[in-house]
Amino acid sequence: MLEVSIDGKRIRAEKDEFILKVAKREGIVIPTLCHHHAIAGLGSCRLCMVEIDEGTGRKVVASCVYPLKGTCEILTKSEKIIRLRRGIISMLRDRAPQDPYLQQLCTEYSVPQSQRYVLPPNLTCVLCGRCAAACAALGNGAIATVGRGTAKKVSTPYDTGSADCIGCGACAQVCPVNAIECIETKDTRTLWNKTFKLIPCEQCGVPFTTKEALDVVREKTFSSTHSNLALCPDCKRKEVLLTPVRF
User: What is the pTM of this model?
Assistant: First the structure.
């Protein structure tokens, strides 16, 4: 165990724990956008930057991907961090001006409402990387960042329906600013310019996923017969609750 200081508070932490994880456990608020508990640290939005002194002077690091190695002093709200964070919030707000969380941060950090950058119209993506990471982990890696400069975005190759997309919808679910359009009807799902037929839950009959997504899950779990795979999330939870516990 290590003893570290975060904003003057003495805290016990394990070696190699990420700063953000320790801070969250202690109720210390560090703003994040790209961080998601189900996805490995990305460190792309830089909102979670903090100052750390490990005995060789202060430096700025992304707390979501910086592991603790020894005794240190961490500052999450120093004058330098506030100044840097204010600039980052302004840039992210320009890319997703209607996002409630970014508007909240603008108020909290007194960010001017004037737009600093000229961006393509209707742009909402903040390039946090969550969607591409989720697609790589749960899907087939069908999306990635494309383009350069202010026109950089996440998309499929040539903005067309990708043969690799399985329509699982994980990308839309993890997007922090609702930038990914996922349109569902009673039995279809349209995502990334491709329409999929939804298959029904074997227990309740409610359409919930695509055949392509279910096939990939079966392949990744090495199971073609596992009864849980063809159940919607609600029925899976009910099945778990009704399963007797043996001691």
Answer: 0.86
Spell 24-63 as b/e; 16+ CB within 10 A means b. beeebebbbbbbbeebebbbbbbbbbbbbebeeeeeebbb
Three-state DSSP class for residue 7: coil
pLDDT digits over 145-158, tens only? Answer: 988 887 889 999 98
Where residue 61 falls (left for φ over 0; alpha for ψ -120 to 50; beta otherwise) is: beta
**DSSP per residue over 106-166, as a string?**
HHHTT--SS--S---TT-------HHHHHHHHHS----EEES-GGG-EEESGGGS--TT--
Q: Is the dihedral of CA 8, 9, 15, 19 positive or negative?
A: negative
Both tokens of 104, joined, read: 């909240």
Q: What is the CATH number of the domain that holds 52?
A: 3.10.20.740
Domain assignment present for 118:
no
208-224 tens-digit pLDDT: 999 999 999 888 876 55
Q: Which domain holds residue 142?
A: 130-242
Rounded distance between C-alpha atoms, residue 236 and residue 201, angstroms: 10
Among candidate residues 108, 141, 161, the one where a domain is terminated = 108
Q: Strand (E) positions, the chain?
A: 2-6, 9-13, 49-53, 58-62, 73-75, 144-146, 153-155, 182-184, 188-191, 194-200, 207-210
Q: Per the domain annotation, does 247 fall within a domain? A: no
Strands 73-75 and 2-6, bridge-based pairing:
parallel
Specify if 149 maps to a domain: yes
Do 66 and 158 belong to one domain? Answer: no
